[in-house]
Design a protein that fits this description.
Blueprint: H1 11-22, H2 27-39, H3 54-57, E1 84-89, E2 92-93, H4 105-110, E3 111-116, H5 129-137, E4 141-146, E5 154-160, E6 168-177, E7 182-190, E8 198-207, E9 212-220, E10 226-235, E11 240-247, E12 252-261, E13 267-276, E14 281-290, E15 296-305, E16 310-319, E17 327-336, E18 342-351, E19 357-366, H6 369-377, H7 382-399, H8 404-420
Parallel strand pairs: 1-5, 4-6, 5-7, 6-8, 7-9, 8-10, 9-11, 10-12, 11-13, 12-14, 13-15, 14-16, 15-17, 16-18, 17-19
Antiparallel strand pairs: 1-2, 3-4
């Protein structure tokens, strides 16, 4: 007799499946839950998760927050002056009554906001465990539509976990930037220290022909939390999408970004900065699909690792046979501030076209002793000199966002992190 292997569930998987059993899910959410139920949480034997064993790292999936248990609140001070200020509390979008209090008439005409569960058209069609996790658990979010206008509206979404008790906060937003329109989307994620809550966020982005979306988000969750984020975007013809992600909080962070070029003559400029200390673990996984010719992309990520923290970058650029004249450049750099930190880097290129300019680079090292000596020889104290060098290292990624308000806000966040290290 051949014994059948038994599938042993972790505490997190057991909690997750129990929640699925009590949720009344519509078909697409049920399909995502079924896939997770079949495969379980991803582990290191899954190539995309070899550096972030979610089965081992995610200890539990607490109970989902319900709308009845959430106390309505307003967003905190926006990172930048914004036309529309939105708040998501414990995964539940708050009322839109005062969302556009600061918006001009032109901005109000350009932006429509609804609360609901928008489509997930921005994501790749192939299954992804992180996307499935969010699709199954998220029951609501903001549905944003931006029309062509003489103004560029700024939309700020403040994601807040308010409870000291561990909960799961899940939401998914969608934003459509219509042909010829422009918009700026800024997001912040925060929560209490000492709470082992789980935050799951999804964002589906459609940038239509001739449109432009600038996006900036900062993940500054509580020190014991787990943050699982997904961004899926599709870029039309002659369109621009420029996201920037700064990560400096949470015990565990995994961000999956999936981007597809659906039209010619378009540009992607995606950048990020990771700042980790203690025993934090962060993972940025990027999948860019050049599925149209004559497009350009720049992927630039900086990681600063202190103490025993670990930063992971996995970047994949796929250039399909149709995507001739593609110009794609990917760079990931790590700066180690201690001997016990880790920077794990896996860049990939898959090129099926023969008329392209593509490349990737990766560096890792500690602070340059010669440059440090130069600053010390000019009378600058050692701690100050080290801070100056870290700021210069990260500034390159921040300043390429080309939005003065965003640059100023994120440089201030960087300075605060360095001062508290």
């Amino acid at each position: 007799m051949t014994a059948q292997p038994q599938k042993i569930q972790t505490q997190a998987e057991t909690s997750l499946m129990q929640q699925f059993a009590f949720l009344d899910l519509e078909p697409s959410r049920q399909a995502a839950a079924d896939r997770l139920n079949e495969s379980g949480l991803p582990h290191r034997r899954v190539e995309e998760w070899k550096y972030t064993d979610l089965r081992a790292l995610l200890k539990d999936v607490p109970q989902l927050a319900s709308a009845q248990s959430v106390v309505p609140t307003t967003a905190g001070q926006p990172l930048v002056p914004a036309d529309f200020v939105l708040a998501v509390v414990d995964g539940i979008p708050q009322d839109l009554a005062n969302a556009g209090a600061n918006a001009s008439d032109a901005a109000k005409e350009a932006v429509s906001l609804e609360i609901g569960l928008g489509d997930a058209k921005g994501f790749h069609e192939k299954p992804n465990a992180n996307v499935d996790f969010n699709m199954a658990l998220a029951s609501s979010g903001y549905v944003i539509q931006v029309r062509k206008s003489a103004v560029t509206p700024i939309i700020f979404i403040d994601h807040i976990v308010s409870k000291a008790d561990a909960i799961t906060a899940a939401c998914r937003h969608s934003i459509l930037v219509e042909s010829g329109a422009q918009a700026i989307l800024v997001e912040r994620f925060s929560g209490p220290e000492g709470s082992a809550y789980v935050a799951s966020s999804g964002l589906s982005v459609i940038v239509e022909d001739g449109a432009k979306l600038t996006q900036a988000r900062v993940v500054a969750e509580g020190d014991q939390s787990s943050h699982l984020a997904t961004i899926g975007a599709r870029i039309g013809t002659d369109a621009i999408y420029e996201p920037f992600v700064m990560t400096l909080g949470s015990h565990l962070v995994r961000t999956d970004v999936q981007i597809t070029f659906d039209g010619e003559q378009s540009h992607l400029g995606i950048r990020g900065a990771t700042l980790v200390k203690g025993k934090q673990h962060t993972d940025m996984t990027l999948d860019v699909d050049h599925a149209s010719p004559n497009c350009t992309s720049i992927e630039q990520f900086k990681s600063v690792i202190a103490d025993e923290a670990k930063a992971v970058f996995q970047g994949k650029i796929m250039v399909k046979q149709i995507a001739q004249k593609t110009d794609a450049k990917m760079m990931s750099q790590g700066l180690l501030l201690s001997e016990n930190g880790e920077f794990l880097n896996k860049p990939e290129l898959e090129i099926f076209a023969d008329d392209v300019v593509c490349g990737h680079g990766a560096t890792c090292g500690d602070i340059d002793e010669e440059m440090l000596f130069y600053l010390l020889s000019r009378g600058i104290p050692h701690p100050v000199a080290e801070i100056m060098m870290v700021q210069a290292f990260v500034a390159e990624a921040i300043e390429d966002t080309e939005q003065p308000e965003i640059i100023e806000a994120f440089e201030a966040i960087l300075a605060d992190w360095l001062a508290s290290r």
